[in-house]
Amino acid sequence: MEPSTTNCPCSINGLQIITELRTVQPVVELGTVLDIVQRVYTHGKDVLQCQDCRESPHSSYVMLPALAEQCLSLFEAVCIAYNITRGNMLFDPSVLAFEEPLPQFICMRSKTVLGQIELDERESVMLVRTLLGRNLMKILEVLETLQKIFRPLGKEASEGGRCAGPATLRACESSVEATMRRFAVFMKQVEDNSGRLFIHSRLVVVANTDSCRGVKDDEEE
């Protein structure tokens, strides 16, 4: 991975997030997972909007699929902690055509509260599932936008004038597609049509935030 030759901070910021993820404690709380995912999402949006990154896509763009996979490993830990996934082969690299397994994390389950009200087991799971779905869509949004950007970039690279050649861009695009397939498999496992009608209005309020701790209920019952 070549460093950026511009004053653009995106490559350095991406490397910093990757480094921090590699050194994060293997046991994490749900709030930590949500904070990390939000940070990756914000970084991804910054990269996609950066003109310097578009001129040198072999650096910052390459990091986005890697960061997305790190988020996926954190999502896995949340699912295991809250018994959300319905299959036991979801993260098998042989099933998903991945050569290496993702880093393993353990999510420490804690009390889920809404203001001063502690949610019961079923409400907690539904809230976590909703937050999980929202954050999955955030990362998937970044990947989908990146995939769209690669198409014209590949054409321009073939015609010359780009730092990254066609082969490099094709490899990056292939990585994005593989990560998106993995997200698709994951989302099938966590979706639960039967539980959607169960979400109470107080859970909907919480679902509009990126944290399930210390949230105040804006609706008076």
SSE map:
Layout: H1 10-23, E1 27-29, H2 30-49, H3 51-55, H4 60-81, H5 93-96, E2 106-108, E3 113-114, E4 117-118, H6 121-159, H7 166-190, H8 201-207
Parallel strand pairs: 1-2
Antiparallel strand pairs: 3-4
What features would you describe in this structure?
The chain is mainly alpha-helical and 221 residues long. The protein has one domain (10-111, 119-196). Helices cover 62% and strands 5% of the residues. It contains eight helices and four strands; from the N terminus they run H-E-H-H-H-H-E-E-E-H-H-H. The protein has helices at residues 10-23, 30-49, 51-55, 60-81, 93-96, 121-159, 166-190, 201-207, and strands at residues 27-29, 106-108, 113-114, 117-118. The strands form two sheets. Strands 1-2 form a two-stranded parallel ribbon. A two-stranded antiparallel ribbon has the order 3-4. Helix 1 (10-23) packs parallel to helix 4 (60-81) and helix 4 (60-81) runs parallel beside helix 7. The termini are far apart.
Overall pLDDT confidence: 74
Oligomer: single chain
Strand content: under 5%
Gyration radius over CA: 19 Å
**What composes the largest sheet?**
2 strands, parallel
Low-confidence segments: 1-5, 92-101, 193-221
Keywords, separated by commas or semicolons:
single chain; mainly alpha; 5% strand
Structure in a nutshell:
With 221 residues, this protein is mostly helical. Helices cover 62% and strands 5% of the residues. It has one domain (10-111, 119-196).
